[in-house]
Amino acid sequence: MKPRAPVASPKTADFWRVVRLFGPYKSWMTGGAVIALATLLANVGLMAVSGWFIASMALAGLAGAAMNYFTPAALIRFFAIVRTGGRYLERLVTHEATLRLLASLRVWFYEHIEPLAPARLMQYRGVDLASRIQVDIDTLDHVYLRLLVPFGVAILGLGVMLAVMATFSVRVTVSTGIFLLLGGVALPLYLQRRGSRPGQRLVESRAALRTAAADGLQGLAELRVYGAVEGQAQIVGELSNEHIQAQRELSRLTGLSQASLGLLANLALWCAVILSVPLVKARALGPPDLAMLALFVLASFEAVLPLPQALQNLGEVLAAARRLFDIVDTLPAVTSPAQPCPVPDETRLQIRGLKFRYAEGSRWVLDGLDLDLPAGARLAVVGHTGAGKSSLVQVLVRFWEYQEGDVRLGGRDLRMFQPEELRRLIAVVSQDAYIFNATVRENLLLARPEAAEEELVEACKTAQIHDFIVSLPQGYDTELGEAGTLFSGGQARRIAIARALLKNAPILVLDEPTEGLDGPTARDLLEAIGKLMEGRSVLFITHHLEALSHLMGEVAVLENGLVVEHGTVAELMQLNGAFRRMRDALLD
Amino acid sequence: MNPVEAWLKAQQSRIRGPLNLALVLGLANGSLLILQAWLLAQAIYLTAIKQHALSAVLPWLFPLPPIFVLRFLLVQASERVAFDAGAQMQSELRAELYGRLQALGPLWLASRASGDLANRVATGIEALQGYYARWLPNRALSALLPIAILVAVFPADWVSGLVLVLTAPFIPVFMILVGKGAEELNQRQWRKLARMSARFLDSLQGITTLKLFNASRREARVVAEISEAYRDSTMKVLRVAFLSSVILEFLSTVSIAVVAVLIGFRLLWGDMTFLAGFFVLLLAPEYYLPLRSLGAHYHARMEAIGAAEGLVEILQQPVPEQPRGDVPVLDAPLGIAFRGVDFAYEAGRPALTGVTFNVEPGRVTALVGASGAGKSTVLNLLLGFAAPQRGSILVNGHDLSGFDNAAWLARVAWVPQRPHVFAGSVLENIRLARPGAALEEVEAAARAARAHEFIIDLPQDYDTRVGEGGVGLSGGQMQRLALARAFLKDAPLVLLDEATAHLDGQTQAAVMEAMGELASGRTVFMVAHRLSTLSLAHQVVVLEGGRVAEIGARAELLMRGGIFARLARAHEAGVTT
Description:
The structure holds two protein chains of two kinds.
Chain A: H1 12-21, H2 26-63, H3 70-113, H4 126-139, H5 141-166, H6 170-218, H7 220-225, H8 229-281, H9 287-300, H10 307-312, H11 314-328, E1 349-356, E2 366-373, E3 378-382, H12 389-396, E4 404-409, E5 412-413, H13 419-424, E6 426-430, H14 440-445, H15 453-462, H16 466-471, H17 489-503, E7 507-511, H18 519-533, E8 537-542, E9 554-559, E10 562-567, H19 569-575, H20 578-587
Parallel strand pairs in A: 3-8, 3-9, 6-7, 7-8
Antiparallel strand pairs in A: 1-2, 1-4, 4-5, 9-10
Chain B: H1 3-11, H2 16-49, H3 54-61, H4 64-110, H5 114-126, H6 129-156, H7 158-167, H8 170-205, H9 207-212, H10 216-268, H11 274-315, E1 336-344, E2 350-359, E3 364-368, H12 375-382, E4 390-395, E5 398-399, H13 405-409, E6 412-415, E7 424-425, H14 426-431, H15 439-448, H16 452-456, E8 465-466, H17 475-489, E9 493-497, H18 505-519, E10 523-527, E11 539-544, E12 547-552, H19 554-560, H20 563-576
Parallel strand pairs in B: 3-10, 3-11, 6-9, 9-10
Antiparallel strand pairs in B: 1-2, 1-4, 4-5, 7-8, 11-12
Helix pairs in contact in B: 1-11, 2-3, 2-4, 2-6, 2-11, 4-5, 4-6, 5-11, 6-7, 6-11, 7-10, 8-10, 8-11, 10-11, 15-17, 19-20
């Protein structure tokens, strides 16, 4: 199945916004441009002086006159050195500037993504975000290297060159100026108009191709079972063709622009010669100056050489910039208070009339919920899928903002705390604990970077995963592979428990911790969880009533975002209500 | 030459024709350039030295514009031909690479980062374009164009010709010296890039977990460190690359200066005509130009080699042997027998040992055991994703390992533990099981799988986009989607891997009912972790440490008082507390 290409609307405003991001690297960037200008002028000077030099030598030879060849020879040497060294320095400085910028932009982008997680990132997948932080940011290097420097250098350089040329012949200067304008302004604008669409398509088709390829590989087992392997290969093939087609259109434009610049330079030269010949005859122009002008005109086109390509990349750059700004401009779901309160020592949790929904106009997921969790108490929240259990966790850890009602921790409104500070108090063990592609140790230290080795081992022993870790080839230093493929579901859950132990927070939220595990594994896990619960307030969210035996405490039954029953298991069984029905359904 | 580039060059034979054509077009352009320089030198000579009037010079100037136009066309034509050659390579190699990845199979892929592999398919292949469309044609041109220019220069001035001939060899020599170090740096750089991608992907996919531990801000430092390290190593590569181009620049500049000085003095001494001198001076930069622009394309070559390393590694990966045997006519429902099956994913860590059991046609077999006991491995073998290393699996008496995998899988429906939802609509996702199915059939399957209810609650019900870039589905929803596929496929063998894992009590009961419907008249393997789901099973196979520990009907096993009975008791206790 083909992923739909994202639609982006590029704006010129985005371009200037990108330029403003360059602020901190202004001096590097200006330095690079100045060196580039010097290099360009040296190169043109070299060509012009050489032409003049041999023509003068020839005339002097014919006339049998003596000639001072030291000055032009010194000039030629000077220009040659500036040109060679300048080119090296220019590349070094401009690339250093760009790469520094890109490195800082990745951090800038990450820092903008971070507050959005997870509420505002639901619509984006990891692969997509990773390609933005990498490929799209890389694309922004065009703005400086291929746009700002070449255009800046061309404008200043051509100004100097045309002024010098005008001291020899205004007519030649005007005609050359016209061709330079055609090559440096008209051609780039034309190519940009023609190239912006394929440029944008290039970025999009590459992303679509990558997504489809990953999709087909991740789902290969299913594709095989349903005989759709070839179909997927065909889709990837079609997207590949689309991608190549975008490249092809850009390549055609590249060919056109190279050919056109060559043509314009040649025509400029031709016109310059035609215009100069009568001037030489009329002695308005020295004969060596003719040779000089011919080479000068030809060389001046070096200034406009990079320009058509520059604007052609603009489409690609703007599409990438838009994809970045789209995320950067998203407002976080939860904002920190301007003057946060310190988190309380007392961890009594009170919820009154809590109303929450994911979007305006959608269904209330929590619809006037009341709950109490005194410090050190244990409360189970049960209910069917969609009853709002997991949404409650999202609200409590401040991943989502709730709309109405009152949530208090130690008597203070939840909104008064810094979300990070609040999360220090809450450990969550859920079914989707992510295992990083790193060592076992790094995965554990995530919870508390300063934890000592003994603490790690202790936590893993309690979580009953220590023995397994030690049996791995490199023990705690074993690399776990993508999404922790070395671990089974139960083992990954144990790592999550060990993390929670290390975090050592006073409030523990268990969000379906045994989900997706088989009976024996789940039971073993509950044993480890039992140890984790000791000495903490516990909110145990589940639809597995089996798990409740391990939780000595109260049960709240959630239905449609409301607590419909509340009491101990025995009381609820007596009640003959929703809890009883759920339990009976299970035992059948 | 390193083996990776040897491989790149070997592929070149596919596009030999277009590459040669591009070369011919480039040479034609070069010949016109020489003619153009000659006409121009004549015009300048007649004006500056002979002081002729414009009318006398015009015959030399008039042929120039048609030459300009011809060259304008030739430049575009050669770009076009070279691009198409590269595009053909991209298209073919991408298809081969993707085909190879598919052939390597799900088990091989499981240990690889799919994001990285997808990158190779997209950008890795794209990086080859520059090698075939720019590097190869320009390299050939850089050998032939200078020769063409020498042929023109020698008759005009043999001294300059000699200077050009003598300086030329220095350029490739220096290039090779610098290039050697750069190549290795560049390949290391490509690997660094792959690592950086993997790391960013990991951080972004796990950002919720990071945030729960307040580690997401710390991660910004990691992003900064990786980016800085990447910048640093990129600069190392670039410094070397720039050095090679500056050497080229320097050599060509010095040589042109020598030519110019020698011409200048011989003109001063009257040993040479201005016409020949100016002609040679116009051509001298063109003599070095192909070599210099080769330097610019050198980057494309190194990028391609770096990318190709990751491609060759996959393309040369041996594909597990695929039996091409036809599947014999099998009467449905299927009877299946495991006969002393041994299997290990890697040597020394057996997953199954001596597994033997029979499944009667049309019966439901439940596989029970702790995680890691080998339940999923049994399914992987039945799916043909791997073959037993010893023993055999018989289907109606025929050995499964002789079947063509695709033809066999046409008879199998499968609900995996973690179903994959493809980027596309819900409809497309279910229809995967039977592409021609009518909307009503899809809906009927979804109803049977108890998926219809949540689907119609989605924003655009069956047309809602799910998977990458679409609406996220919960574990239970994905599982019911996969179950709907199984219903739609209507296969004689059904494999259910913990199919009710993510469902709550009520839905679970409904799905169980559905599975009962699905099971009728079919042979079913069911990996069960909840004993309540066993009510459907005619037979329970209890696995422990890769061996069959117990086998029999549910009631029978309960009576026996073995592992299964212990599991069941514990379960019962849990529910009734």
